[in-house]
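Step 1: inspect the first sequence and its tokens.
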Amino acid sequence: MHIEVKEDDFIIENEIVAIENIKDPDAAISIFVGKVRKEKKLIKLFIDCYPEMAENEIQKIVQNASNRWKLNQVRIIHRYGSLDPGENIVLVITTSDHRGDCYSANQFIMDFLKSEAAFWKKEIFLDKTKWVEQKVTDISTMKDWQED
């Protein structure tokens, strides 16, 4: 397991190479990359966090995923600070012997990262600034995972 919470950007290709160099490549690799939306009038997305707290929360999320699915490797990078539209925010890579475990675990991790990890987002537009609140659909998704 590799977890990083940092301000610097990441290069997706380098992260894939890093996960494949750990041991023999796994049969299934699932990759999710989240980026800052390119919305009209959005100037910046500011993500605030306590990096150590966020890393601890992410470790718990990964442990829960590992208890549900057979995963071989997990690599997560989540950025914070001031980000421009189109920039990378988060990378979640899961590997397994089977694609189903890979897909499901990756989605589970991402859903819980969005709802449970200690990150706070503020959108800065040309004409206003607003903190991003949790969406009703995110809450519903969390309930679905808990019912599984």
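Step 2: inspect the second sequence and its tokens, then contrast the two.
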Amino acid sequence: MKPLRNKHTTRGLSLIEITLVIGLMLALASIITYSVSAMTDWQKGRDASEKLKAVYIAQKSYMADHPSKVASSFTSSELIPYLPNRPGAMPSANSLEDQSLELNFAVMPPQFFLGGAKYDPSDSPTDSLWDVGSL
């Protein structure tokens, strides 16, 4: 004997189910987009910190060889040979908004500047992002 089928049974998804699935997909997409954006900003900060640490190490190495020299009189040509991996030029970085930052290596530790002001969007001198932090 065949089981009885309801004539009104339909197969597929209802409008409510489709709406919920689309809403869930949009929510996940926005979370992923936010996470990637935050990760990109963190990566820029980490790269800037690595560059500042390299300059700081070059400053300290240079001062070990020239103890009578003061940081305010450093020139890039004096520090470049002391940089790790000897890149041939002073390192550079961009802000979170992709503006070119100016490196001030005449102070210890070195700092990045934008428009004459110290650039550190993290607002923390010890987080190791955008500054030498605590070594």
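Step 3: confirm your contrast with the notes below.
The first helix runs from residue 15 to 65. Residues 17-118 form one domain.
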